[in-house]
Amino acid sequence: MIERVREHAGSVIFARVAGTEGSQRRARIHGTPGPRRFSPGDPIWRVHGDASMFVGGIRALLLQSLHPLAMAGVDQHSGFRGDPWGRLQRTSGFIAETTFATVEHADRAIGAVRRIHERVAGTTDDGRPYAASDPHLLRWVHVAEIDSFLRAHDRYSARPLTPDERDRYVAQAAVTARLLGATDVPEDVAGLAAVVAAYRPELESTPAAREAARFMLLRPPVPLALRAPYGLLAAAAVGLLPRWARGPLRLPWLPVTEATAVRAGGTAITRGIGWAMAPPARST
């Protein structure tokens, strides 16, 4: 009975994240023979295969929204409001392809995203031009993601990385960023922190960023039955944001609550997701 419950919960979660073709994609990604950039023993496999990615993904979107040029591209060209699950499925699929798939399939996915980026350009409401292929913007999107994934893994993974593994994770994640067109990508944790800090003068509170935060945190497009689990993930994600990112997004700073109730809730929900999505036990 417990195994049936686990399998059902895991299939529901996987369908939401991966979409209707998720099972076929997973079989292709993991089952296709051929050389791969990374191996199961690498830190990037551990981080990107961990349930803490659910928390890190929400934090990354909130942090990324603070760059007005990056947010304008999402607001004007992305269907995240009309089809948020589709966007999540495409993003999770890209991370899976570039982490676990063969080099051939990973490069194919990277090429497809680069072609999309070449078509995404415009101007912000105040007249500033932007282009999704801009190496500077690509680097911001990358460091916001990797900083978020790593912090979520540090906080909520059952097996956090060692300091050396954390540096290796940043270096491994930089490979895909460079192939996408980003430049001057950090290679270790210290470099990652320095690059994030260097972007702070460019970050702003814009109506689009605040609306995106409200959409993700207050009006999430999830079924009623999933509102409570999603709320735990969202609270954990906000709890990992630095204080300087809260004000522009109109998010509270509650250090005591975040260190106790929010952390306990985040631990419970990520462990629950990890249990639900774990491979079934093999009979002997």
From TrEMBL:
Residue span, ER-bound oxygenase mpaB/mpaB'/Rubber oxygenase catalytic domain: 45-267
Entry GO MF terms: oxidoreductase activity
One Pfam family in the UniProt entry: MPAB_Lcp_cat
InterPro entries (alphabetical): MPAB/Lcp_cat_dom
Name assigned to this protein: ER-bound oxygenase mpaB/mpaB'/Rubber oxygenase catalytic domain-containing protein
